Amino acid sequence: MKILLVEDSATLRHAMSQYIVEAGHTALVAESGEQALQLLEDTPVDMIIMDVEMPGLNGFETTTLIREWLGSHWIPIIFVTGMSDDEDYRKGIEAGGDDYLIKPVSKMIITAKIRAMERIADMRDQLNRLNQELEALSQLDSLTQILNRRTFNEEAQKQWLLAGRKQTHTSVLMIDVDHFKLYNDHYGHPAGDRCLKSITEAIRSCLHRPYDLLGRYGGEEFVVLLPDTDTAGATRVSQCIKNAVAKADIAHEVSPSAERVTVSVGGASCPQTSGYSLEDIIKAADRALYRAKHSGRNQYKI
Ligand code: GH3
Ligand code: MG
Ligand code: MG
Ligand code: MG
Ligand code: MG
């Protein structure tokens, strides 16, 4: 760990930084609170050992400023001071200190305290990692690992705004599995889940651009956003999806319209400058999907 030692006494600075180095850490030193603040501006540290009585800013004031500056990023700050009143201890903790040691402090004590704080810092890192993982998980649909509806809407809205008033078209496709209720009833829910994963892969195989978005919009309904794509492009992708699902070749022996699993696709395209909102074009794609269903399924309408 990189440990900052703030101490105005040269003798103590020397001895304590020796302890820090012998414990296997890197020691940075500051002679005053002001110097500590300056150093922190461009050097991140993992822990601070802080004297209290110093000319200029004292350790409590310096700590308050450091905590303000670090915001929600917590690092351990330990006071090491000659001030042994209970009231000083209280002030130190209040100022943002995590521990309060009274001089003289032996090498063994300071080493043990550093170890204890290091354990808490490890826990902080673990929590941060878990939080990041949770954040990522909450954006995905757990079955298909594609964007869930909420995240799709957020990301699509970002793309929509990004495209701004460009002269390009944006397209949306709504894709719905045909007679999927019958599929589930006949093959069982686990098979239905596997089928949805295969359909996801089939759709994904038709999306090649980094900005294309794929989301699970409902049970057996998917949505695709194609930025920079006009009606011709949307038609190509729809045809590709229809073919890819056919190629997946999933048996559906009770389907009234085909012996294999098929999908219906509804698409809509509009130029950024049309004045339509993203919701408008999603609704238009939904209406096109309805037409595809009512024209016999296993087809696309744009
Ligand atoms: P249509 O061709 O008109 O779309 O008919 P459909 O049967 O596909 O449509 P409907 O909306 O009646 O049924 C959708 C079915 O999708 C019902 C539901 O049990 C199933 N379903 C929704 N989500 C899941 C899921 O996560 N896993 C599985 N296995 N089935 C699901
Ligand atoms: Mg001092
Ligand atoms: Mg339905
Ligand atoms: Mg369906
Ligand atoms: Mg449906």
TrEMBL record:
Protein name: diguanylate cyclase
Catalytic reactions of this protein: 2 GTP = 3',3'-c-di-GMP + 2 diphosphate
Keyword hit for Secreted: no
EC numbers: 2.7.7.65
GO molecular function: diguanylate cyclase activity
Domain Response regulatory: 2-118
Ranges where the GGDEF domain occurs: 168-302
Statement: the UniProt record of this protein carries the keyword Nuclease: no
Sites bearing 4-aspartylphosphate, chain numbering: D51
Keyword terms: Coiled coil, Nucleotidyltransferase, Phosphoprotein, Transferase
Residues of the full protein shown: 1 to 302 of 420
Source organism of this protein record: Gilvimarinus algae
Superkingdom assignment: Bacteria
